[in-house]
Specification:
Layout: H1 2-11, E1 14-27, E2 30-42, E3 47-55, H2 58-71, E4 74-75, E5 87-91, E6 94-100, E7 107-108, H3 111-120, E8 125-131, H4 135-147, H5 152-159, H6 163-166, H7 169-172
Parallel strand pairs: 7-8
Antiparallel strand pairs: 1-2, 2-3, 3-4, 5-6, 6-8
Helix pairs in contact: 3-4
């Protein structure tokens, strides 16, 4: 009975394969090839994780990556359908800027950044990827940016202001 509940919890995640790469290890007799798979898993409600798996066959690598993505899930501060404030993430040479957008804008992102944001449940956001185009580093930079996000309530209490003052500008307008 408990096992079925566990399986149903596992199936509710939005899983996206962001990269499948053949990697080689040079040994005395030549090269040994393996497959590296990167998977993003999220619950579309503010939790998202990244997993990387390596194996001799793609299905085994995907299974490993998915399991690791589920273990590495983390919470993200989401405000309505966007993020509360502008944030920049950096890993190695890859830089990612995430900027909140008004309702109806959609996810303006490509590749791995889009996969991470949609799996996290963010529906309206503007992004810009700078520097390196290495897919894994860009995704890790996106996670770095998401980790820096603070909820409007938390930041309002820290600054001694009202929560309304911390919201994105389109929610502060008088006629909104």
């Amino acid at each position: 009975m408990e096992k079925k509940e566990f399986l149903s919890m596992e199936q509710q995640y939005d899983e996206r394969v962001i990269e499948i790469a053949r990697v080689a290890k040079v040994v005395k007799g030549g090269r040994r090839f393996q497959f590296r798979v990167a998977v993003v898993a999220g619950d579309n409600n503010g939790r998202v994780g990244l997993g990387v798996g390596k194996a001799n066959a793609v299905p085994d690598a995907m299974r490993k990556a998915t399991e690791r993505a589920h273990k590495n899930m983390r919470s993200v501060a989401v405000y309505s359908t966007t993020i509360p404030h502008i944030v920049n993430g950096k890993v190695a040479g890859a830089k990612v800027m995430l900027k909140p957008a008004s309702r109806g804008t959609g996810v303006i992102a490509a590749g791995g950044v889009r996969a991470v944001l949609e799996a996290a449940g963010i529906r309206d956001i503007l992004t810009k990827s700078l520097g390196s185009a290495n897919v894994l580093n860009v995704v890790k930079a996106t996670f770095d940016a998401l980790d820096q996000l603070k909820s409007p309530e938390e930041e309002a209490t820290r600054r001694g202001k009202s929560v309304k003052e911390m919201l994105p500008f389109w929610d502060r307008r008088k006629n909104a």
